[in-house]
Amino acid sequence: MQPFVYETLPSRVVFGQGTIGQIRAEAERLGVRRVLVLSTPGRGEALAHEIAALLGNLSAGVHAGAVMHTPVEVTEVALQVVRGAGVDAVVAIGGGSTIGLGKAIALRTDLLQIAVPTTYAGSEMTPILGETKDGVKTTQRTPKVLPEVVIYDVDLTMGLPASIAATSGMNAMAHAVEALYSKERSPVISLMAEEGLRALARALPRIKDDPRDRAARWDAFYGAWLCGACLGAVGMALHHKLCHVLGGSFDLPHAETHTIVLPHAVAYNAPAVPDAIERIAWALGVADAAQGLFELAGRLGAERALRDIGMPADGIERAVQTALVAPYWNPRPLEEGGLRDLLTRAWNGNPPQA
Ligand code: NAD
After folding, report:
1. What is the pTM of this model?
2. How remote is the CA of residue 120 from the centroid of ligand 1, in Å?
3. Domains present along the chain, CATH in parentheses
4. Alpha carbon distance 207, 164 (integer Å)
5. Ligand 1 contact, 292 CB (< 6 A)
6. Residue 119 in contact with ligand 1 by CB distance below 6 A
7. Residues 6+ apart with CB under 8 A from 123
8. Whose CA is nearest to atom 22 of ligand 1?
9. Residue 138: predicted pLDDT
């Protein structure tokens, strides 16, 4: 074992089925008086109105303006609503996009946040905010954006389409994978990472086969919580760096990009961190971690080639060069040729190779 620092993040987690019924009690517990409910437009908005009704006279209404990658101009519009309504807290109901908007508001106002996630992406458990300005996404880590309360209600995930469950679930698994070989890894977070991987690897194929499988939805959400907590606790490495570069440079969809890149990033890092890779394989119940993740993505019917989600062929070289500028810490040094091979395989949808 190596020396470690373990810091507990101050967030309260309420997990179960029907837990959204506790939202008013949770708001009262925080001592807030006027709450704005945030969501994306469409289906999420209907759910937001249901939550506003549960909040009763604490509700200041719904703002259904969240979009992916938290553009600052979208936050500016939401801030006007926040100021106009005189609220002292926000409830963010939805996936990482809505939760990102809640965080962006909290960063600028110090308002309290209750996050109600409906995907497996994990943002609700982290003090991390990624924002986009003029097409450039920058990420910061600050305790100001960590939601005070997170309500996980399995009922809210029952209608999450299997395809989104698959990719947001693999996005969550990426947090746990990199936590196991993080520079800041610690024994407690590694336990959570293994358990999160195990829960998601078993649950996602069951959700694919039967999206109404309630027990599988429980397991997947439990795994997502654990994986999100890993991302919140320790630094990430090459995989997250590459996804950040690809998402920012080519406007690729977030969860799908993570799903495609993960097996290749694991294969790249495998020679440098054999113990961590063995733990990942063990948690997945497979002999080879990288190959197991690639096969899992296939089993879930997810895209496995970057070219199929909108990345141009000439983007490979651009991505290699961008990734080499200000790289994240990584257990294996970033080598230009190795990165080019990795991205070429991921672009073509070929199996991973160390
Ligand atoms: P998302 O929030 O964009 O949601 C994806 C789609 O699923 C949307 O169309 C949404 O309306 C729909 N959806 C959500 N819940 C649903 C439900 N229960 N039923 C039916 N449809 C539902 O996607 P995401 O993958 O959750 O989040 C991606 C975003 O989160 C990215 O911007 C990413 O950068 C960010 N993120 C941030 C962190 C962090 O720690 N800061 C971590 C992970 C992801």
Report:
1. 0.95
2. 8
3. 12-157 (3.40.50.1970), 162-348 (1.20.1090.10)
4. 11
5. no
6. yes
7. 95, 96, 99, 100, 103, 115, 117, 228
8. 160
9. 87
